[in-house]
Write a structure and sequence with these properties.
Layout lengths: L5 H14 E10 L2 E8 L5 E8 L3 H5 L11 E7 L2 E7 L4 E2 H4 L7 H20 L2 E2 L8 E4 L2 E4 L6 E2 L29 H17 L10 H10 L11 H7 L1
Antiparallel strand pairs: 1-2, 2-3, 3-5, 4-5, 6-8, 7-10, 8-9
Helix pairs in contact: 4-5, 4-7, 5-6
Amino acid sequence: MRRGGSDIYDFLSERIRTEFDAVRVLHETTRGSVTLLRHRGSGKAYILRQMHGASDVYRRLLGVSCPYLPRIYEATEKNGETLVLEEFIRGDTLYDLLIGTRFTQKETRIIALELGKALWVLHSVGAVHRDVKPENVILRSDGAVLIDFDASRVVKAGADGDTLVLGTIGYAAPEQFGLSQTDARADIYSLGVLMNVMLTGKHPSSELAKGHLGRVIQKCTMTAPEKRYADVLQLMEAL
């Protein structure tokens, strides 16, 4: 059956109702909700996303295997409503870990490289995350995982701007709040801010990290996108 069609949406809705139990709602906004599910047969935990909007990015990630991204098992939409069944990532959010502590230069570099690999995969399928921040990074024993593609979008050739302004103030690149279309360099900006917060607890405009990482962060967070690293491969080489 065709992914994304109403037939798949109805099938997935029925499957969730009959095969899974809702454990608890993890997050809820006006745009949608994130619910922890448990499969009745296997006992395995999953994440169910229900939201208003398109499922383009989630559908592009179907079948993609990357240790730094959650597996997307099903993604479909109907009448502007999207359902996504994805892997549940066990671990602590970077947001929780940053409360009262800072990361070393070595720790920051390792996590930034892992997130760079996640972004490279995401960018390779033509998408931009647009909301790289501590709440959307989970650290587990085998590395960092970048989650939550609700604010993500597919880059469309010839488009003058983003159809919807999304992102977190402080982490979102300046162009996300302007008239131009965001591309992979917006995620590079956000990753630069994230690295600086891990090292100093502050936005780079308030206090820039010292040393080589500080210089990398400074290039990542240039106001003009063309002055940043051209892609995450360049950033990872610099790291």
